[in-house]
Design a protein that fits this description.
This is 3-oxoacyl-[acyl-carrier-protein] synthase-3. The protein folds into two domains: 170 residues, Thiolase/Chalcone synthase (Peroxisomal Thiolase, Chain A, domain 1, 3-Layer(aba) Sandwich), CATH 3.40.47; 132 residues, Thiolase/Chalcone synthase (Peroxisomal Thiolase, Chain A, domain 1, 3-Layer(aba) Sandwich), CATH 3.40.47.10. The chain is of the alpha/beta class. The protein starts with a strand and ends with a strand. The strands form four sheets. Strands 1-9-6-4-5 form a five-stranded mixed β-sheet. It has a five-stranded mixed β-sheet with strand order 10-14-13-11-12. The protein has a two-stranded antiparallel sheet with strand order 2-3.
């Protein structure tokens, strides 16, 4: 059984308001609507930093990794955007070298967009289990730079911020154990933010139902129901859409953890792991509690993963 050993993060110190962001991007969007109804207020950005520096900053804060670098078998970067850094940079390889992880196999998983980090957890758990080395580890890195305008705002859906999560996983373990994973890809919506008005309307109709079905599939595979869930660690998109998902899935509103959304925005695949850090620090999870990590990637893949704290 796969478990999360530790989560660390890097958040740029500079915050920018939605008004400032929309003006910079020359977007004629109403910041009040995004704040009052969608749940966003500001995001983090590090214009002068590069991705490799941010990945290293997050991973270097993993206390469990120190002295165990030789046990890391895989280093997986799980971005939403396939071209996550300007050519010819290789942020994953640069991070491995900087952290002394030369023995690890580095690769990327981006096929599920913002849900790729959950795919990486499942993939690394399977790889580690098949290797048969009980002490072996995998390092998963997720989150990215918002270095292009299209990577900063998805209209009526999300405002993206910079933030990196570093997740150390192993096969076995007693804390934050992954009990199940479910995902579903609707390939007809593969054009993501560039859907025709007709396809976009169809996507909006199917989104809520699909998300609720995936959450219930993950819970059923874990032998649980909605009543057993302490928290849903959400990906930080339009709050109104989350209210519809909760209603259809039978989850009470007080189980939804979106505390980071207002100040961090949507940090791509890092959202549920940043939320795990915040929820744990706030005492929202006790030993034995069940929680669900969720993500939805443009393209369109929806995923849910159940853990026991």
């Amino acid at each position: 059984m796969t478990s999360v050993v530790e989560v660390a993060s890097y958040l740029p110190p500079r915050s920018i308001s939605l008004t400032e962001l929309f003006e910079k991007l020359s977007l004629d969007y109403n910041a009040d609507v995004y704040e009052r109804y969608f749940g966003f207020q500001q995001i983090r950005q590090d214009p002068g930093g590069n991705l490799a520096e941010q990945l290293c900053a997050a991973a270097s804060r993993l206390t469990w990794l120190r002295g165990r670098e030789h046990l890391v078998r895989y280093v997986v970067y799980a971005p939403t955007i396939q071209s996550s850094a300007p050519y010819p940079g290789n942020p994953v390889l640069e991070t491995c070298l900087a952290l002394g992880l030369e023995r690890a196999l580095p690769f990327s998983l981006s096929q599920h967009a913002c849900a790729s980090a959950l795919l990486a957890i499942d993939t690394c758990g399977r790889l580690l289990a098949s290797d048969g080395e009980p002490d072996a580890l995998a390092l998963i890195l997720t989150g990215e730079k918002t270095f292009t305008p299209v990577a900063q705002v998805v209209e009526n859906s999300a405002v993206m911020g910079e933030g990196i999560a570093a997740v150390l996983v192993r096969a076995g373990g007693e804390r934050d154990r992954m009990l199940s994973y479910a995902s579903r890809t609707l390939g007809e919506f593969h054009e993501g933010p560039f859907l025709t008005p007709e396809l976009d309307a169809e996507f909006q109709r199917s989104y809520t139902t699909t998300f609720a079905e995936v959450i219930h599939a993950a819970l059923a595979h874990a032998g649980l129901t909605a009543d057993d869930v302490t928290l849903v660690l959400a990906h930080n998109v339009n709050r109104m859409s989350w209210m519809r998902v909760l209603l259809q899935s039978g989850l009470p509103k007080d189980r939804l953890f979106l505390d980071n959304q207002r100040t961090l925005g949507h940090c791509f695949g890092a959202d549920p792991f940043l939320s795990l850090q915040a929820a744990t620090a706030a005492g929202r999870l006790r030993e034995g509690d069940y929680y669900v990590m969720t993500a939805s990637g443009l393209g369109s893949t929806t995923a849910a993963m159940v853990f026991q704290h």
